[in-house]
């Protein structure tokens, strides 16, 4: 039986192969946190250079900044907010006598990185189309964004203080221990 000329099966197979290959590389990049973030910061620098030299696309940059702020709030927030909902699952301890429960993010680090990188790629591609270059007085947008950032971070930090959680993994605590006293006494001889 012959397939018609416009048959979507080869196209679907191509999309499936591309999607599988893309997922393979995402899976390979997962454990390389520093490399992933270095690439994202390089992309951010490239985007900033592009916007600086084109002298435009400030609305795109403002939208990108608001989206990144929204992602940051999700990254810093606990999965279950004690102010808004009650859950049978893990929650933040409220008193010193409460059992320790680990901090679980609303937005995991990998999804945070992936969303930022994808947003930067989309914003960078938008800078090649003049339809997105809306004329605007950029200092006002910058002031709006800074005020929004300060107010949002203040609220988030007060929430962290109120519920006593730190959204960063500082790592395993290291103890210095005592230095060998025998080595110091031998150096005096």
Description:
The C terminus is likely disordered. With 189 residues, the protein is an all-alpha fold. Helix 2 runs parallel beside helix 4 and helix 3 runs parallel beside helix 5. It is built from six helices and no strands. The chain has one domain.
Task: Briefly summarize what is shown.
The protein has about 190 residues and is mostly helical. It has six helices and no strands.
Number of strands: 0
Uncertain regions spanning at least 5 consecutive residues: 183-189
Share of β-strand residues: under 5%
Output the helix-strand order.
Answer: HHHHHH
Mean pLDDT: 83
Descriptive key words:
single chain, 189 residues, mainly alpha, 6 helices, globular, transmembrane helix, Protein RER1, Rer1, transmembrane, membrane
Topology (SSEs and partners):
Blueprint (H helix, E strand, L loop, with lengths): L8 H21 L3 H22 L3 H19 L32 H18 L11 H26 L17 H8 L1
Helix pairs in contact: 2-4, 3-4, 3-5
Subcellular location: Membrane
Membrane topology: Multi-pass membrane protein
Family: Belongs to the RER1 family.
